[in-house]
Amino acid sequence: SMPLQQTPINSSPAVYLHPQQAQLLSFNENESVQVHQDGFHQVLPIKFDSSIPKGVVFIPASYEETSSLGN
Fold this sequence. Notes:
The chain is mainly β. Helix content is 8%, strand content 25%. It has 1 helix and 3 strands. The chain has one helix at 19-24, and strands spanning 15-17, 32-37, 40-48. A hairpin with a 2-residue loop joins strand 2 and strand 3 (40-48).
């Protein structure tokens, strides 16, 4: 079978949030934000996704850029 990175549901390393939530926070799509967690940080672009519930941020962990977040 093909690697998960090549499947149609593959996303890119980014901060995903609902467009209305982004608007409330004055974020623009593709704007860079710095994410901090447990002593690690990474700068990632913002991507809008209406399937993400309002009040939730999704950051895929399956990429080198995001693998240190959430450990």
